[in-house]
Write a structure and sequence with these properties.
Radius of gyration: 17 Å
Shape: globular
Strand content: 15-25%
Distance between the termini: 35 Å
Number of helices: 8
Structural class: alpha/beta
Order of helices and strands: HHHHEHEHEEHEHEEE
Number of strands: 8
Helix content: 25-40%
Low-confidence stretches: 1-5, 168-174
Mean pLDDT: 90
Oligomer: single chain
Bound molecules: S-adenosylmethionine
Length: about 230
């Protein structure tokens, strides 16, 4: 499938995102360390997700764009067999250091090194915000591929009608990770197209931000009552 940004162009936004998180992985980890403690609604979403994974009979869950691993570790505490994947090698170093014993791997959501149907669930929390619109369809198709039928998908992303202007190249500046804002209904339509059944897309508004949450599952689950 075409991402619409093949070759050097695709490499460019991935390379900029990687370099930006590599540049200050420790600082980012510090910033988000106790975030869940301050955001009870996000904790509730995680608890619901964990409960749904359990109801499916459990299985492997990928935290894609895991950063320093705070969500992976939180899900593990909730009994979920979670592991993390991140584009930034420095971020993965931090995750491994902060959560010894948990599994973290360097990788990109644009090319997941996972077998078809191997996951019970996948979470991408504040990570599709870095994927350009014209690459998102292929990323969601990849999520669909690695989930088993009925497998759950949980997305968290910044909500908005418009994104800030894309970073203009400046030889002096270090690479930036460009953040996109999206309408939940727009993301739901992309998921529908990728073969997911969208269950809910609430918006969580706090003083700090408006978070879009999207819970969906890969179509093809047999009706457990039949
Ligand atoms: C805003 S941080 C969120 C980190 C973590 N999910 C959290 O909530 O603390 C975004 C993360 O997504 C990762 N990321 C961005 N693009 C990615 C890609 N194509 N594949 C995997 N990870 C990616 C970045 O390296 C970064 O660690």
């Amino acid at each position: 499938m075409s991402t619409g940004r093949e070759g050097p162009q695709a490499e460019r936004w991935l390379a900029d995102t990687r370099a930006s998180y590599d540049a200050d992985a420790t600082g980012y980890a510090e910033e988000v360390r106790n975030l869940l403690e301050r955001l009870p609604a996000e904790r509730d979403v995680m608890a619901l997700f964990a409960e749904r994974v359990r109801a499916l009979g459990g299985g492997l869950v990928a935290d894609v764009g895991c950063g320093p691993g705070r969500i992976t570790a939180h899900l593990r505490k909730l009994g979920v067999d979670a592991f993390g994947i991140d584009l930034s090698p420095r971020m993965i170093e931090v995750a491994r250091r902060e959560h010894p014993g948990l599994r973290f791997e360097v990788g990109s959501m644009t090319r997941l090194d996972l077998a078809d149907g191997s996951l019970a669930a996948l979470i991408a929390w504040y990570s599709i915000i870095h994927v350009p619109d014209d690459a998102l369809g292929a990323v969601l198709a990849g999520f669909h591929r690695v989930l088993r039928p009925g497998g759950l998908l949980l997305l968290g992303f910044h909500v908005g009608d418009t994104s800030p202007p894309e970073h203009q190249e400046n030889a002096e500046s270090r690479p930036e990770s460009y953040v996109r804002r999206r309408r939940p209904s727009e993301v739901a339509a992309w998921l529908d197209e990728a073969g997911f059944e969208v269950e809910a897309h609430p918006t969580l508004t706090s003083a700090a931000r408006t978070l879009g949450v999207l819970l969906a599952h890969r179509q093809g689950l047999e009706d457990p009552s039949s």
